[in-house]
Amino acid sequence: MDGLLTSGQDAGTARTRPEEDALHRLAVVLQDDLTETNRTILARMASDVELIPQLAAHLIAAGGKRLRPLLTLAAARLCGYRGERHIHLAACVEFIHTATLLHDDVVDESGLRRGLASANAVFGNKASVLVGDFLFARAFELMVEDGSLDVLRILCNASATIAEGEVLQLTTQNDLSTDIPRYFKVIEGKTAALFAAACEVGGVVADRDSAVCGALAGYGAALGMAFQLVDDALDYAADQNELGKTVGDDFREGKLTYPVLVAYAAGDGPERAFWRRTIEDGEQTETDLATALDLIRRHDAIGQTIREADAFARKAKDALATLPDDPLRALMMEAADYAVSRHR
Amino acid sequence: MDGLLTSGQDAGTARTRPEEDALHRLAVVLQDDLTETNRTILARMASDVELIPQLAAHLIAAGGKRLRPLLTLAAARLCGYRGERHIHLAACVEFIHTATLLHDDVVDESGLRRGLASANAVFGNKASVLVGDFLFARAFELMVEDGSLDVLRILCNASATIAEGEVLQLTTQNDLSTDIPRYFKVIEGKTAALFAAACEVGGVVADRDSAVCGALAGYGAALGMAFQLVDDALDYAADQNELGKTVGDDFREGKLTYPVLVAYAAGDGPERAFWRRTIEDGEQTETDLATALDLIRRHDAIGQTIREADAFARKAKDALATLPDDPLRALMMEAADYAVSRHR
């Protein structure tokens, strides 16, 4: 069990890379809030339909970074909020995220999620879809209890945008004619929208004006883009044991990610034919991943992806720079740098 | 194209059984509201991610009864409501229903839905899950625009209850030890909860007190139970062409429905062994459906199911009887009778 939800455990020690990165330090600073959030998550995953807490427990064991709830907590505290609402909204954000992971497991047929067998592999497609639906509904119940229509609007819109991004990803999945703007639209939906909403609602509970909430949303959106780009890079670069993620997942699923777009654009005729066969037609042999990794290296596709991510990290910091200086603001800025540097 | 959404078409003529039943007459009385609801549904299914309106159009072609939105419209009008909010909430109720159908297609692997190939069979599991998520999110966006936290609470709770019911169904699916109370809990979730919420929000937009809203919810819940019981009966009794539903779907999926519970309880040793093999172990041969139908007939399981449904129909009418007499109330009561009589 290495999840943050392990009761009584230091909220920061359990992450898969326990070095003193900015996210770890954010988790330590916000430890009490995070403990309360984890308590709320556990309480609200309860159901007398046994499979629901069972499957929930499986996800809890997998842990996860609690990155999105951490953003809600940080944004609220940065805005000087002193109440309890941000706890419930942080739980709500994690429920939405977990629901999309469950539905993603169905979609992507990925065997590993957070280093453990995916919920799908253990419980089946059916349970993943339905428990995901339950968590979505619970998330909205939490928002209704909170009672802010602004919060509801932000998180409903984010949910619709996430679904649109996932559908767009589905339709671009085997299509090498996908261009960069379209790729960005996919990850704006599937990743950046919830990062943005998670930050923005922190400003809303603190009753801050639209300039502040907009800055927080801008920070979250750019941070989400940076994270996703680096995740995409890591899929062609990471050590599987270290990250709990299978290298080449995206390749095997025929996903068009930034590194592939770069390598395809820079490739010659035979290289493009390789990408068309493996990605568009989904015809892959055992040696293809090695070839793909070689082409990615040859065209510095990882380097280009990281530079793009770095530009988003700068954008994230610029957005935060409009807010008053504060130790929490500094940590949030460092988190943007960490989003990029973690690839090393 | 025989859906109610065909623009300019009489809202009633398109249903699969066009005789003068109570639902048809309700649809005629509420025709203008229904046309507006269909317009709202079309407008809000729009997305610049092309697969979403494409898949939506597939569902629109399939039509469906628009039963749940009809209940919202009827309840609101019965309460004397004269505004526009009930239109949006009726659309929202249909979105939630359509989303659950899409997710059900993934879950049940059923080949037919409303007489056409299911969305799943045409577009694949992935699209069904994600477009379902999009419709859920759109439904909540519509509610947030409406701005009533009471409406949001009712429909969020219903959504969570639906998901719980579906998960419970999943865990009881191959388990003959399922008893009647547990079976009722499944259909309370998967069917009655949304019927109840659809009716209740009609009272809420009309600003009626909790006695009235509670009566409407009670009517909807009992009506939903009656409808589901009769649907379950029809699965072992209906003419496929007439209903657009495959006879024996539930049997092949190993679903425990009321008729099976009755036949199992009344069966002798070899009969119980038959049910265990075909339902619990999922080992079925080509002649098993015929045997199942024979056992269902032998123990009058359809008759018992219909009598149970009739009891719920009476409960539905009793709930409405607490409200003032009105032609619309009379039609809604007749709809409860029709829910049962349509099996003939």
Automatic annotation (TrEMBL), chains A, B:
Enzyme Commission number, as recorded: 2.5.1.90
Enzyme class per UniProt: transferase
Catalysed reactions, as listed in the record: 5 isopentenyl diphosphate + (2E,6E)-farnesyl diphosphate = all-trans-octaprenyl diphosphate + 5 diphosphate
Domain of life where this protein originates: Bacteria
InterPro entries xref list: Isoprenoid_synthase_dom_sf, Polyprenyl_synt, Polyprenyl_synt_CS
Needed cofactors: Mg(2+)
Signal peptide: none
UniProt keyword Metal-binding present: yes
PROSITE patterns: POLYPRENYL_SYNTHASE_1
Any one GO BP annotation for this protein: isoprenoid biosynthetic process
Sample GO molecular function, one term: metal ion binding
Coiled coil regions, renumbered to chain: none
Its biological purpose: Supplies octaprenyl diphosphate, the precursor for the side chain of the isoprenoid quinones ubiquinone and menaquinone.
Family: Belongs to the FPP/GGPP synthase family.
Protein name in the entry: Octaprenyl diphosphate synthase
UniProt organism field: Acidiphilium multivorum (strain DSM 11245 / JCM 8867 / NBRC 100883 / AIU 301)
